[in-house]
Amino acid sequence: MTKDHWEQAALELRDRARAASRKLRHSLRVPAAVAGGPGPLRAGVATRDLTPALPVHLDGYWQLRRAERVRDTPRARAVVLDDGRTRVALVVSDLIAFYSQWVEPARGRQSAVPAANVLLATTHTHSSPCLLGMFGPPGSVDMGYVEWAGGQMAEAIAEAAAGLRPVRVGFGRAELPIVGGEIPGFARNWHNPGVIDPAVLVMRLLDAETGAGLATVVNLGNHPDVLGDRTVEVSCDFLAPVYEAVSGRLGGETLVFQRALGGVEPIPQGLNDPAELEAGLSGVAQVATRAVLEAAERAEFVEVPRITWRTTECRFPITSGEALKAYASGLLPVEAADGVQRTEMALLELGPARFLSVPGEPHPEVLAKLSDMLGCPYDFVLAMAQDEVGYIVAGELFNPAGIQELLSAGRDNERVVLAAASRLLGVDGYRQPTCLR
Ligand SMILES: [Zn+2]
């Protein structure tokens, strides 16, 4: 073979390699301009007010309550993270739930973060404008409010992205004390007494230049229903004093994402006596705040070389009697014409931390299985994200006549969530967690 021939063959090989690389890059949707690799991690944070016009019907109990006052301001809080290649938004709102068909348009009402990389979750406060819709007459959800709230979430994302700056990232973990199967002054599992998830996780984001706190992302599980069924004020429930105390100590914004809240109620729960409310709310908030600050104190600051984000579609068959009745009578503002609630789950990986989103209320037994599958020191489970399929009850405990089971899409909830987690994590399943042995 001549020298010319070798040169020609080498040039052809190079062109073929370039073409293959272009094709791969296209299929991975990696923007060419930043394909050289991730840069330093940047983050931004912003919030928007979600106070409804008054009076407003509140959701959370078996009957609608008419609220004429605001006890504390509900907000949408957004953190945007960017490694120079991948950008994601984590947003949590002080609302009871936000269904997937509302999430979809809200994600696309801003262009700073790709819509598919936006996670919208709620804190599940039971003093929220009527959004579940299950306990009022048909049409009791104010769709004007839904649309406005989605716009507020999008605005918070856009502002957070506009303020991106280099950050230091720390992860910490604390355990709430368990005494007699309960967390005193904080929470108990009334569905399966004695089984409770005591973990409180935090992600701290500090301005890399000044060291000032930018945001604290908290993950803990408990129903925000210290305020009872006869209270008539819009409120974030026990989270309002948590936001104030944590931001007061650590600076920046505090975001709280629910974890294993299914079957878990606060101690005390359902207070109506005005004289008892203040002490009840601040007692529960103090236990939570102490654990958050302890986790923050222990935070391990790490290099996060890159962000990864994946999603997978989930299909929840609707089989529960109450849910079927609610869908059939048009009470639930959810599209489920073929008896399937379609939504998605996402996995975000940041160094030693993984954040798995779940579109409903996982019970502690389910959380234990997910935690085992996540298999990392900082296993964030972001419940109430992208949708609400109701309680996610462990298969081995599912009682078709139980109240938690009736307030769920049905007995397939756990199976669908575990299967989606397996796909996202690339693992076959879980080892039976200790609490269930
Ligand atoms: Zn609930």
List keywords for this structure.
437 residues, alpha+beta, nine-stranded mixed sheet, 22 strands, globular, binds zinc ion
Give the radius of gyration.
23 Å
Q: The biggest beta sheet, please?
A: 9 strands, mixed
Average predicted confidence as pLDDT: 90
Please identify the oligomeric state: single chain
The total beta strand count reads 22
Query: Can you give the helix content as a percent range?
Result: 25-40%
Terminal residue distance:
71 Å
What proportion of the residues form beta strands (DSSP E)? Answer: 25-35%
* Approximate shape: globular
Unreliable stretches, pLDDT < 50, 5 or more residues?
A: 24-38
Description:
The strands form six sheets. Strands 1, 5, 6, 7, 9, 11, 12, 14 and 16 form a nine-stranded mixed beta sheet that branches. By secondary structure, the protein is of the alpha+beta class. The chain starts with a helix and ends in a 12-residue tail after the last helix. The chain is globular, with a radius of gyration of 23 Å. It is 29% helix and 27% strand. The chain is built from nine helices and 22 strands. The chain has a domain at 307-327 and 338-358 and 375-429. The relative contact order is 0.14. A hairpin with a 4-residue loop joins strand 5 (75-82) and strand 6. Residues 24-38 have low confidence and may be disordered. It has helices spanning 3-28, 100-107, 143-162, 239-250, 274-297, 321-328, 364-374, 403-406, 413-425, and strands at residues 42-49, 56-59, 65-67, 69-70, 75-82, 87-93, 118-122, 128-129, 165-175, 187-189, 199-207, 213-220, 233-234, 253-258, 264-266, 300-302, 307-317, 340-350, 353-357, 361-362, 378-382, 391-392. The protein binds zinc ion (ZN). Zinc ion binds at residues 124, 223, 361.
